[in-house]
Each structure stands twice: as structure tokens, then as C-alpha cells.
Design goal:
Helix content: 40-55%
Largest sheet: 5 strands, antiparallel
Radius of gyration: 49 Å
Strand order of the largest sheet: 2-1-5-4-3
Mean pLDDT: 81
Low-confidence stretches: 385-395, 563-582
Number of strands: 23
Length: about 700
């Protein structure tokens, strides 16, 4: 078929009436013409495609150039024959070249690189590097120092496509700012490391300072408070007794302030650690309230306690810190309450699968606080108002320390208060329970418990405590009708307070002297723990069984555990007290401070120990321990010549195969970890200064079976 263009021309001739030739010659002509038309059309098509390809290549090239000029890195494309194929403006800018990038095209790449290297600090090394690129292939140089102070980085990448090499791409980048940032970062890290080291050194120095401060302060305080306590037991009268009491009270206050400051410093230094030991929760609470009861009794403020039945008695935790928080809150309650009561309550807030969350509440009938005072109460160095410090003293650290301690023990602390309505402080802490259920008095064995002659608040608290244990507790008026009610019972317990009226005297006299009542009713007289006159009055009327107020929960459980019908049997079965030794055991006191020596000897003498040797340093203590057999050794830790720790270790080394002598640390070191340090070196127990007679009695009873 003829080419469309040729066919179109032939058709036009026919329409014009032009006769067309025929024959073999004409056909040959037509074939030649058709081939010519086809080649011309093909040439036109190729020409058009070439134009389009040129346009596309121009567009791609312009875009590539624009892209290379827009980036910050300098590019140099080296062809396989070592020529410059492409250079961008950034390369010219990096090496301070004024020529146009296009002017470098087709130059020897090595010449251009030599020109660039002339701007560097080590051009020979760079030129050697450039000549070795074809052999190395890919290359990275992290730093090229320039003469003008800048730093450049270089990366050389081979260009390969389909297995063929098309030269190399040289990429230069200015890393001056990045390197400066790295230098600043390294410098900052170095400064931080130095600051950390200094902080650790200061923390260590601070810890050592606190430990030494604790020892140095407690040593003279031990003498002041201890000697004042001994003077209080002497036959002083009138103003002389008041003077001594003032000395003792001021010493105790000063010691409390010192303890607050040391505790706060330990918290700030991150040195406050908690113990985790087994202890009797009721015993810790009772001991704390017994001590605080002195102040409450002096102010005629009633101090009572109520423990929920679900609260475990044997627990694991830090008894010292628990006592510290409880003591602080109760002491504040007594301090700010002029009339009324302070009540302590404890209950289980969450079961916790063997780790109950206990909630303690301390309610007082003091003046209460405004909301703005409550909001800042647990901040360091803060009190409800400025008059508080002037009237009551204090550092303003106690509640802040309590808050931190509660948080460390898995709990929290807070207060509910309003002006004129008193305050209720509460705190929670998590302890591990060591018992499935606390043993409580059996209701059928005890019988009903009657409360006679008690103050309204003490009556309410005791009744709530007893009914919580499942016992029947009722009010009983100390009247003849009350006696008749008791006569009709098989067994009963009376908890009563002696009154001054004739009716009250007759009531309690009948309980003691009427055989029928005495056989069925067990009577306990409630008398102040701190009033010798109340206790003396009870004994004068023939009552030997007394319950001290504030009531110790553990003691209340113990006295109710015996059924009234078993009184006689229990008394008969009780072992006879051991006969006192004719001669007290020989003791050794290792103490270098003369005042502390006199104090300890005086306290031991009051306990009946007069056979006491004194060593003034660790070496003398070691020599004495090797020469004599002592029933017990009191060892100060910080002494000249040889410290108590080393003396104890050497005593233990020489005791191998011999009787072990109890060694008790008697030291002013009272920081966290000091107790463990004493036990680790071989000591058996730990007493801190100021020396408390009650604590000393406990140690003597524990290790010698003697004492009060």
C-alpha cells in the first residue's frame, strides 16, 4: 500500500482530471516514491524525538544544577579519565574560589583538588590522599583543618551504574559549628563530671561531719541530761528541784532540736536509710505514749489510745522511724492542747496481702488551724504561724521530716483541722505482717468488763477498744446498786478509778473485802503512771493489781487473758522469783570521757552493779578483757589509742573456744549505719548517748537476767 502522503497526492491528480500513466515503469516509480516518502517521515519523527529528548535533558540538567547549588555541601564530580565533570557553587564558596563553577569543567580534577588543598593546614597530606582515591575506592575523612580556623569533612563515593565505573563524587562539608558544639559538649561533660566528683566528695565530707557532729554533741549532752536525771532522784526540795528539772528539760529540748537538724541533713544528703526488722507494734506504740504521758499528765491533758482488732501485733519494718513519726505528732498534740485530750487511733487501711497499709490518727482538742496554715505545715522550716516558734520553740523541721519518713515507708501524711475544732493528724505506712491473726482475750472466759469511775473520754476509748475485741463492756456506777449487779454474775472484770467520795470508797472496799465479790470479780485500779500519790492510795486500800494510765494496749490484752476463775491457779503456778545474787556480776566500762564515766557508774550503781572496772581506751579494755572474766562489757566506739571497734574485734578473736562475753556499744554515734557497724565488728547490742536508764535496764535484763 502506498504511503498515506503519496496516496493523497495521487488522489488529488485524479480529481483534477490528470491522466495517470500505467505499465511496469509506472509501478516501479510508485514503489520508489513510496519508499522515499517513508524515509522522509521516519526522519521527521526522529528529529521530533531528538528535540523532545534535548528538552528533557536540559530540564534534568538544570534541576540537577539547581539542586547541587542549593545544598550546603560542596560537590565535585570526577570523570573516569580524571577530568572535572561537575562542580557546584558551594565547593567554590568553601574553598574561597572566585571563579564560576562552570569554568572548572573539563579541568584536571587533581589540579582543582590541589588548589583546594592549598587552603588547608596540611596540603601535602591532602594531595597524597587525593592521589590514592582511585585505589582506595570509598573514602571518609572526619576532619580537614583549614588555614582560616574552619574544619571540613570529606567523603569520596565511587559512581557505578550497571557494573561500569563513571568516576567519583567528592563531597566537602563545613563542620566547624558541629565541632565547636562537640567541644562544648565535651567541656560541659567534663565540668559535670568534675562537679559530680566534687559533690560526691562534699557528700562524703558532709556525712563524716554529721557523724562526728552527732558524736561530739551527744557526748556532753549525755553528761548534762544523765547527771540531771541522777540529781532528780536525789532528796532535793523546792527551788533546787525546779532548777534541776529546768536543766533536764532544756537538755532534752536541745537534744530534740539537734536530732531534727541531723535527720534533715541526712535526708538532704540522701543518707537516710530504713531498717527492716521484726518488732512488736503495740510495744513500740505503748513505749512512745508512756514517755509522752509525762508531759500530758503535767498539763492535765488526757492521753488515750485505741487499736483496731485487725491491726497485726508482730510486724516487720523500722520501729525507730515509726516511733519518731508517732512521737512527733503526739508531742505536737500535747504541746498545743491546753484542755481536753489527745487520742491515738490505728487501723488497717488496706490489707495488702501480708503487707497491710496501716493508718494512724492523732486527734487533739487544741485550737485548730486555718487552711492557709495547713497548706504550708509540712514544708521545711515552716510552722503554723510565727508566734509558734516564740511560744513553743522548735526548728519547723519535725513535720517535714515526718513526711519524708512516711513516704520512704510506703505511706503519706496529712492533717484535717479547723480553727476552734482541734486537729487530726494522720499518717500511713506499709509494714509486713508476721502473724495470721492477733490473739485477743476470749469473751466467754473474761466475762463482762465494767468501767467504773472513769472520765468520759477514757471511758469512751476503753469501751470502743474492748467492744472491738468482741468483749462486753459497760458503764458501772460505783454505787450499792452497782455492787448488787456484780453479785448476780458468775465472773466479771472491773476497770475502775478510785474516787474521793464516800460512796466510791465503799464500792471499792466491798470489791476488795467481800469474799463473794472477790472470788468472782477481778478488779484493776486505773492510776496515773506518773502519779505516785494515786498509786499509793490504791495500795493503801489493798489493791495490788493496777492498770497504769495512759493504758498500754499490750498490757490490757495480757491482764484480760486470764479468766477470773483461773486467778488462784495462775498465782499458784507462777514460778517463784529467783533469789537475788549476793554479789553483782563484774562489769567492764570502756569510756574515755570522765563525765560519761561518772554518769555510767552512777546509773549502774543505782541498778545494783558496784563491781565495775573502767578502761580509758580500747587497748586498756582489750587488756582487761584478757585478764578477767566479765559478765558484760560496755564499749565506747570512739576512744584514743585503740577504737572500740578494733578492741571488740580483737576480743572476739581471742575468745575462740572460750565463753563469749556480751559487749554492748555505749556510744554517741547515732547515725544510720552505726548500729550495723557495731554489730558487724562483734558487738551484741547498741545503746546511744544520752544514756537512758530504761534502755540500760533492758540490756542488763536481757544479757544478765537482772535489773528492774
Amino acid at each position: 500500500m502506498a504511503h498515506p502522503a503519496l496516496a493523497q497526492h495521487l488522489a488529488a491528480l485524479q480529481e483534477a482530471g490528470v491522466p495517470l500513466p500505467s505499465g511496469p515503469g509506472w509501478e516501479a516509480f510508485l514503489e520508489a516514491a513510496d519508499a522515499a516518502f517513508g524515509k522522509a517521515a521516519e526522519a521527521d519523527l526522529l528529529k521530533e524525538e531528538a528535540v523532545q529528548d534535548k528538552k528533557a535533558l536540559t530540564l534534568i540538567t538544570s534541576r540537577l544544577v539547581a539542586l547541587m547549588d542549593s545544598v550546603q555541601s560542596g560537590f565535585l564530580v570526577e570523570t573516569p579519565d580524571g577530568k572535572v565533570g561537575l562542580v557546584n557553587q558551594a565547593l567554590c564558596n568553601l574553598f574561597r574560589m572566585e571563579e564560576s563553577p562552570w569554568s572548572h569543567i573539563n579541568r584536571e580534577a587533581l589540579d582543582l583538588l590541589r588548589e583546594c588543598g592549598a587552603r588547608l593546614r596540611r596540603p601535602e597530606a591532602f594531595l597524597q590522599l587525593a592521589t590514592s582515591v582511585p585505589a582506595r575506592g570509598r573514602l571518609e575523612v572526619t576532619e580537614l583543618p583549614a588555614r582560616d580556623g574552619r574544619y571540613l569533612a570529606l567523603e569520596v563515593v565511587p559512581i557505578r551504574l550497571g557494573g561500569e565505573d563513571y568516576g567519583f563524587l567528592w563531597m566537602f562539608q563545613d563542620i566547624t559549628e558541629r565541632r565547636r558544639d562537640q567541644e562544648r559538649l565535651v567541656s560541659s561533660a567534663r565540668e559535670l563530671a568534675q562537679a559530680r566528683d566534687r559533690a560526691l566528695e562534699l557528700a562524703s565530707l558532709k556525712s563524716d561531719f554529721l557523724a562526728n557532729m552527732s558524736h561530739e554533741i551527744r557526748t556532753p549532752m549525755n553528761g548534762i541530761i544523765g547527771m540531771a536525771g541522777l540529781l532528780m532522784d536525789a532528796p532535793l526540795e523546792g527551788e533546787h528541784r525546779e532548777y534541776v528539772e529546768t536543766i533536764r528539760s532544756c537538755g532534752e529540748s536541745l537534744l530534740a532540736l539537734i536530732n531534727d537538724i541531723l535527720d534533715f541533713s541526712k535526708i538532704e544528703a540522701g543518707k537516710l536509710d530504713l531498717e527492716s526488722i521484726d518488732f512488736d507494734l503495740l510495744e513500740v506504740m505503748d513505749d512512745a505514749l508512756s514517755i509522752l504521758g509525762v508531759k500530758a499528765h503535767a498539763k492535765e491533758v488526757e492521753l488515750v489510745c485505741q487499736v483496731a482488732p485487725a491491726v497485726p501485733r508482730r510486724v516487720k519494718g523500722d520501729p525507730v522511724r515509726l516511733r519518731q513519726v508517732l512521737t512527733n505528732l503526739v508531742d505536737n498534740g500535747v504541746k498545743f492542747t491546753e484542755k481536753g485530750y489527745v487520742e491515738v487511733r490505728v487501723q488497717v487501711a488496706e490489707d495488702g496481702r501480708g503487707q497491710p497499709l496501716l493508718r494512724f490518727q492523732v486527734e487533739d482538742t487544741g485550737p485548730g488551724m486555718a487552711p492557709d496554715a495547713v497548706s504550708r505545715l509540712f514544708q521545711s522550716f515552716s510552722q503554723a504561724d510565727t508566734s509558734t516558734t516564740r511560744k513553743f520553740g522548735g526548728t519547723g523541721l519535725g513535720l517535714a521530716i515526718c513526711k519524708r519518713l512516711c513516704q520512704l515507708m510506703g505511706g503519706d501524711i496529712g492533717v484535717e483541722s479547723a480553727p476552734g475544732r482541734g486537729s487530726t493528724f494522720w499518717f500511713t505506712l506499709r509494714l509486713q505482717s508476721l502473724e495470721e491473726a492477733r490473739a485477743l482475750p476470749a469473751a466467754d472466759a473474761v466475762g463482762p468488763v465494767f468501767l467504773a469511775g472513769l472520765s468520759p473520754h477514757l471511758y469512751r476509748t476503753l469501751r470502743a477498744q474492748l467492744t472491738g475485741w468482741g468483749l462486753k463492756a459497760e458503764h458501772l456506777a460505783p454505787t450499792p446498786e452497782g455492787l448488787e449487779a456484780l453479785r448476780g454474775l458468775e465472773r466479771a472484770v472491773v476497770l475502775g478509778a478510785l474516787g474521793e467520795g464516800a460512796m466510791s470508797r465503799a464500792f471499792f472496799k466491798a470489791l476488795k473485802e467481800d469474799p463473794a465479790l472477790a472470788a468472782r470479780v477481778r478488779t484493776f485500779i486505773l492510776a496515773s503512771r506518773y502519779s505516785a500519790s494515786e498509786q499509793k492510795a490504791a495500795r493503801a486500800r489493798g489493791f495490788k493489781e493496777m492498770l497504769a494510765v495512759p493504758v498500754r494496749t499490750g498490757q490490757l490484752i495480757q491482764i484480760l487473758a486470764l479468766a477470773p476463775g483461773a486467778f488462784e491457779a495462775a498465782a499458784a503456778a507462777a514460778p517463784a522469783p529467783p533469789a537475788p545474787d549476793l554479789e553483782s556480776p563484774r562489769l567492764l566500762l570502756a569510756e574515755d570521757n570522765p563525765v560519761n564515766q561518772r554518769l555510767a557508774l552512777a546509773v549502774l550503781k543505782k541498778q545494783g552493779f558496784t563491781n565495775v572496772d573502767v578502761a580509758e581506751n580500747g587497748q586498756e579494755a582489750l587488756n582487761a578483757a584478757m585478764a578477767h572474766s566479765y559478765g558484760l562489757i560496755f564499749m565506747d566506739c570512739q576512744m584514743p589509742v585503740m577504737e572500740g571497734y578494733e578492741a571488740t574485734r580483737r576480743i572476739r578473736e581471742r575468745e575462740v573456744g572460750r565463753r563469749r562475753t556480751p559487749i554492748i556499744a555505749l556510744t554517741a554515734h547515732a547515725m544510720v549505719g552505726d548500729r550495723e557497724k557495731c554489730l558487724d565488728c562483734g558487738m551484741d547490742d547498741y545503746l546511744t548517748k544520752p544514756l537512758r536508764p530504761q534502755a540500760l535496764e533492758g540490756v542488763l535484763r536481757k544479757y544478765l537476767g537482772t535489773g528492774c
